[in-house]
Fold this protein.
Amino acid sequence: MDDELKKPVKASSIIHEGALFVADAHYPHHGEEFLLLLKALEEGRIEAPQLFLMGDIFDLIFGCGEYILSHQREAVETLRRLSERMEIHYLEGNHDFLLKNIFPNINVHPRGSQPVLMELEGEKVMLSHGDRYETGWGYEIFSRLLRCRGLLCLLLPWQKRVVEANLRPLRGKSICKELKGFDQKVQKILAHYPEDARWVVEGHFHQGRIVGERYVALPSLACQKAIARVEGGSWVFYPFDPERGELGAPLKEEKPHKER
C-alpha cells in the first residue's frame, strides 16, 4: 500500500453539504445494513464528502485483542479501506470504544472528548453519541471502567470467553422502542450545551426525530433502517435500501420501528 494512503484524510471542523450521519447500527446482530452501506459508499452508489459514525455502530467492538474483530471482520476491513480516501469521524459509543488502534486513519472521538464542536454554514454544531449527559453516576462509573484499556488487556488470556459472555445477551436484545418523556429528557440534555449552539446532534436513543428547533435525535440504522444527510443547513432522514444499496425518498418524522 502506498505510504500516502496510510495517512489519515485531513480532518475538517466544517460539516459539508451532503455529509452522512450513521448512528446505532448495532452490527452485526441487528441487520446487515451497515456493511451494505459501506459497500455502497465504496462502490460509488452513494456519494458523500464526509461520513460521521455516531456510536454504537457495532454491537460490541473495542481495541484490545483480536478475537472481538473476528465477529465483524468484513465490515472493519471495508471501513478501513474507505478511511483511506474519505474523511470519516467516529464518535465512540457505549458499545464501541478504544477504537483508534483499530481505525488509525479515522478521526476517532472518545466519549471523554465529546461533545465535538463543528461548524455548519457558519453556525456552531455540537456532536455526541448521546450518553454523555443525564445518565446518572452509576452509568458514569460503569463507562469509565468499561473503557479502561489496562483492565481489558488484563483479560486477554480469557478474551474469547469474555467476549462471548458479553455478546450472548446482545444477540437477542430488543433495542427499538419509543421512549416516553423523551422531549422532557431532551430539555435536560440541552441544559448542558451552550445556548449559542445552533444544533445538538446525538444518537444513542434510536428515535429518529428533530426535537424543537435545535436537537437532532438521529435515526438508528438498526431500528428505523435510516441515516441522516446534511442538506441546506439541516438534517434530512433517508431510508437505506440494502438490496439496491441506495437511499430512498426522505422520511417524515418517524417513530421507532419494531425489529424484524
